[in-house]
Amino acid sequence: MSRFLDMGGYAAFVWPAYAVTFAIVFLNIIWARRALARSRAEARRRLAMRAESS
Amino acid sequence: MSSRVSSATGSVATRAAAEQGAASATVAAETAAALRAARLALLRDLQLAFRKRSQLVQPLAFFALVTMLFPLAVSPELSRLRAIAPGVLWVAALLASLLALEFLFRDDAHDGTLEQYALSGQSLTWLMFAKTAAHWLLTGVPLALMAPLAALSLGASPAALPGIVASVTVGSVTLSLIGSIGAALTLGIKRSGALLSLLTLPLSLPVLIFGARATELAMHGAPLAAPLELLAALAVLGVTLAPLAAAAAVRISLE
Amino acid sequence: MTWTWFHRLGSPPYVYALAARLTPWFAWPAALLIAGGLWGGLVLAPPDYQQGDGFRIVYVHAPSAWMSLMVYMTMAIAAAIALIWRIKVGHAVAAACAPIGASFTFAALVTGALWGEPMWGTYWEWDPRLTSMLILLFLYLGYMGLRAGLEDTQRADRASALLAVAGSVNVPIIHYSVTWWNSLHQAPSVMRFGKPTMALSMLVPLLMMLAGFTLYFVALLLVRLRGEVLSRERAASWIPEVLKT
């Protein structure tokens, strides 16, 4: 296991590269869901406003 | 409607030929009108620019100033300056041309001239071509004429100057064309300076690369046909595509 | 008649529902492929004979670089379709692409630098691929900056679409000029990798990662697309319906 983590001496380069990439993979998921949630909340607010005014 | 009436009388073939002839005649007339409009727009821009001389001088002063920064920042030794001179010249020229872009459409957008252009029924593409040509004549050509002075101050030999003038002249055509798209896209955005550079600089990189290479070859007394031809190819591509894109961008901005 | 599917893509409620329905069909295969690619790349593949275990960065660098280019292409094509045929959904797709593409271009740059240090002896080498990638990042930032600068969505859509198309005309020219530039100034100290034929046990995980990231991109795009479509429809009658779920 420690041999695996050591990556033949390249651990300092391999693991940060994987960490950055997968951080971006997961952040993108969060960002995308948040963007959708924001649009939906915005649409709801507009609907509510229209319901009030009419 | 009229064609349907005539189809009852004339044969299809002669009607088609007549229509084609009429169409090509109107196309020719339209092109002539567009060219006339473009020439007028060009002359108007030049006249206006000569009334506001400060706008003409500022990019040139900026260019001279940026080239002056390098001897002060790097070293006054001509041998060292000579090594970085092509890069310095082109970066300074790129920035100076960028600086002048702000004037390209701003006043015309303010006073409604652009709107009039778009509504005039004349080809907006040709009018954009004229405006870009004016911009090039007012910034590109003066920069090309200034470049030898800057190059001499950075240690270029007099023999290199024609090549440097040629490369800046050709390269600045493309810079103006790319800039016209960026300026048209950012019309109406407040404090658009940083955005304009973010849009246009990445697209200008090929010009920078080929231009600096041409300048470098000229300073070494080597033949510089290859990069000059590439610069010319970029200019031709730009002339054919950029006015179309700039006209579309102006239309989008005016909507 | 075969074009009806194309026309239906012009209808926002159809697109919204379709995007919602399709998302899991891309997301789960993507997760499986990426997990399999990781296992294969980090555990099963043998160390490279030249680069040892350092070569394993390829399993994240190559997919990121692939994403950065593919997303830009998708963005430019969607923008062109939107401009030419005036299909609003095209604008929504293009707008959804930009942040994804920019973030993966950033990932490609960082992983490229982390790969460069052990292999070239420096984090940053002005290598044509890394340089082109950096320029691509600026193209994305310019696109996003223009969108952010224009408040009116319709104008932002059309102006940024024009920029994306103009940029895509330029990308090959930029890439060519950067390659040309690099061939003039090649530093002799730079180690160039020989191109050994990749062993199958190395290649298969890489292909799995590439396929997985592509599917993952589609899934992300579909999620973002729903938001973009929704925000472009001010007062459509279908909106209350989709907000119920």
Which stretches of chain C are poorly predicted, pLDDT < 50 over at least 5 residues?
Answer: 187-194
Distance between the termini of chain C: 33 Å
- Strand proportion of chain C: under 5%
Helix content of chain A: over 70%
Shape of chain C: globular
The overall number of domains of chain C is 1
Give a topology summary.
The complex is a heterotrimer of chains A (54), B (255) and C (245).
Chain A: H1 2-6, H2 11-53
Chain B: H1 2-9, H2 12-51, H3 53-73, H4 78-110, H5 113-119, H6 124-153, H7 161-185, H8 193-219, H9 225-254
Helix pairs in contact in B: 2-6, 3-4, 3-6, 4-6, 4-7, 4-8, 6-7, 6-9, 7-8, 7-9, 8-9
Chain C: H1 4-8, H2 12-44, H3 58-85, H4 88-120, H5 128-149, H6 153-184, H7 200-232, H8 239-243
Verbal overview:
The complex is a heterotrimer of chains A (54), B (255) and C (245). Chain A is mainly alpha-helical and 54 residues long. In chain A, 89% of the residues lie in helices and 0% in strands. Chain B contains nine helices and no strands. In chain B, 44% of the residues are buried. In chain B, helix 3 packs antiparallel against helix 4, helix 4 runs antiparallel to helix 6 (124-153) and helix 7 runs antiparallel to helix 8. Chain B has helices at 2-9, 12-51, 53-73, 78-110, 113-119, 124-153, 161-185, 193-219, 225-254. Chain C is an all-alpha fold. Chain C has one domain (25-46, 55-182, 202-234). Helix content of chain C is 78%, strand content 0%. In chain C, helix 3 packs across helix 5 (128-149) and helix 3 runs parallel beside helix 7. The longest helix of chain C is centred in the first third of the chain and has 33 residues, at 12-44. Chain C is globular, with a radius of gyration of 20 Å. Chain C starts with a helix and ends with a helix. The B-C interface holds B 181, 185-186, 189, 192, 195, 198-199, 201-203, 205-206, 209-210, 213, 230, 234, 237, 241, 245, 248-249, 252-253, 255 and C 135, 138-139, 141-142, 145-146, 149-150, 154-155, 158-159, 162-163, 165-167, 169-170, 173-174, 176-178, 180-181, 184.
